[in-house]
User: Fold Amine oxidase from Alternaria panax.
Amino acid sequence: MSTFGFMNRFSGNGEIVSKKHLSTLDTYTKGKITLWRNNTRLAYMPDPASLVEVAGAPGQLNTWAAEVNTSSPWTYPKAGELDSMNFRHFIDQRVTLSNTCLVLTTACKAIFAAEPRQLYLLYVAALIAIKDGAQEKRVVGGTDLIPQTLAKKVGSEHIVLNAAVSTITKIPRDYKVVSRAGTVLAKEVVLAMAPPLLRQITFSPSLSTSRQQLNQEMEMASIEKGIPIYSTPFWRYENLSAQIHLFGAILGFILGDEMRALDKLTPAQCEEKLLADYKRYFGNSATNVTEFVLQRWDLEEWSRGGPVAVAPINVLTLYGSALRAKVDGLHFAGTETSPYWTGYMDGAIWGGERVAKEILQY
Assistant:
């Protein structure tokens, strides 16, 4: 299984963090990277030929990325060509070494939680066109402090949780929003969720044709999180670079096909399989857990997958312009709407700020 140790990270350019007087720390990256390859644990150092090929394979992607407008990649003159070729085909065409293929495939799954065959080059080129990193900083105390501090400012009496919206109806002057918690009237409605989740809501009148098609065609990636907790961070003593700070825990993501392979297993069976993997990666010490946390986003009502919705063949070219386009008083936010770091917290914050300005200027 593919497991990666990162959590609570963002680019460090988040103005909202400084405004809320939160502290940050650099992501821990010291030590060697562990690679599981051909049933062998390696302190990862690829052979020189693989390094050359890995560096060269993105060359054409970088050329496209330099020309793509991240705010509207569908306007790129070669958008139709890129949006009809998946990343798997690109790798197969340009990669000859198995190690290079492994690195590019693993990177694809780590970033998107999707297999290379699920991603099309226009989507990939738009993402790599972005400068700086999205995982170089962490918030001291956890990133949940961001929504907590925002909630305090808004006031808990104005926030309703666990109340899925079922219908949104336009009436003469307002929108009638019906949820499990009751009915709310509003002049403007912000929909900060992945496009596929909008299919769970009935709109009257219907959304624009392009927006409906976008919601229908985009699909959630597949991801699960398994966190074994230990009394001490034993991997540090072996000079491994699992990117965790302060306490003894390893956050592992199970992605793409590996995630779907676990669909029929119970939580206990998932834990057993994951701990067996951790033992192979990090030795016997990895089985001495004090607690195990399992989060299956594919089965979670509020996300149904993640971390981001991906666009299949030709979807961005045909319907991408509907991503951020408001429909009367309906405004669309969420990380998918961001031209910067789609799928990351930075992207989600950018989407929220854009919509807030949109409403104030409306």
The chain is about 35% helix and 20% strand. The longest strand covers residues 223-230. Residues 267-282 form the longest helix (16 residues).
